[in-house]
Amino acid sequence: MDIKTETVQKKPEDIRHELQAGYKKAAGNIFISDRQGYWSNLDKDESRRLADISSETGPRAAVRKHYPQFFNVIFSPKRQGGLELLDLSGEESCVDYGCMWGAMTIPLAKRCGYVLGVDQTLDSLRFLSTRLKEEKLDNVDLLCSNLKSLGNFRNKFDVALVNGVLEWIPESGDIELKRYYGQYKPKEYSGPTPGEQQLAFLKTVHRNLNDGGRIYLAIENRFDFKMFLGAKEPHSNLFFVSFLPRKAADWISKIKLGRPFTNWLYSFKGIKKVLEESGFSRVELYMCFPDYRYPERIIPYGGSLKDFTPTISPANDMGRKSYKRFLARIGEFAIFGILRLKFFAPSIIAIGHK
Ligand SMILES: C[S@@+](CC[C@H](N)C(=O)[O-])C[C@H]1O[C@@H](n2cnc3c(N)ncnc32)[C@H](O)[C@@H]1O
Predict the structure, then answer these.
(1) Rounded to two decimals, what is the model's pTM?
(2) Ligand 1 pocket: which of 39, 74, 106 to mutate (most atoms <8 Å of CB)?
(3) pLDDT tens-digit readout, 151-200
(4) 231 domain-assigned
(5) Is residue 259 one of the residues assigned to a domain?
(6) Cys-Cys link to 231, which of 220, 226, 267, 335 (CB 3.0-4.6 A)?
(7) Would you tell me how many other CB atoms lie within 10 Å of the CB of residue 338?
(8) What is the phi/psi pair of residue 5, to 5°?
(9) How many domains in the chain?
């Protein structure tokens, strides 16, 4: 056995010891810091109930029965499509920042040696813990903590996932999405700008990677074509705010929602710049269709859109068809299949190399 293999095999144990030394242990494989928070599509009672029922009936049955609208977002095999880009060997130690219900944590754990899932929402981690049990995965630990107050890990990771999380980093306080998304809820923010907070978080991600480690970052494109054709920005439910200058977006958001627009998204060029500023020496960019959550087609940003066929389904997650989705499908074909305007691709996956 050579030295490299020995190091890789020892690492998950070392990370576990580090967690045991630094944090309190809650149930099972969940560690907790004193910096918890709340973010979920469900309200707090529902989250607790989902975790409780899942531990009795199993997570699939619980979601199918009580929250069928979230079944695909949690369990769809399409969610893991982007992980192919990492070409994992099966031995890597990974961290999934903002892991929530484990849509990426579980498929990642099946492809690598170890995963630490980190999230601020304890009940989401309790639910994920029931998924790990159901899947008989014992190579995952969970840490309940605010990503903005994470320190340095002595044992570093080979891969870090930041999937649909960077845009939420500037938020503060508890977020129950249905009482927040598109709702008038006045809120003051102080301290660093959203961009400064995102940069600080990405620097932490960078610091906690081994030399040669990689970040997998997935996020909506600030210039997603749909937002120019009448679709609302998906985090605030407002028109135009993603692509307008940040100050103008703040004004619109303050008028409509009583708070500034903090869910900053980036263009391809913008995300590359932020990753480079965070310390990543090389960044690969991919266009992702129809979006990063259910990636059906992932094309290098430098690649060709020749032979592009549309990916937007005329039906939503629940199988309901709508004329808006049909028009979006036509728009998608016109913009990418005919005009080949890569700049307007819906989502971005960036792989940054340390
Ligand atoms: C949109 S969900 C993404 C979930 C998951 N990565 C996926 O792709 O399914 C965002 C998650 O990030 C977590 N999150 C956002 N900001 C956070 C912070 N400052 N600290 C810890 N977790 C955070 C939320 O709790 C939530 O679970």
Answers:
(1) 0.95
(2) 39
(3) 899 999 999 999 999 999 999 999 999 999 999 999 999 999 999 999 99
(4) no
(5) no
(6) 226
(7) 10
(8) -60, -40
(9) 1
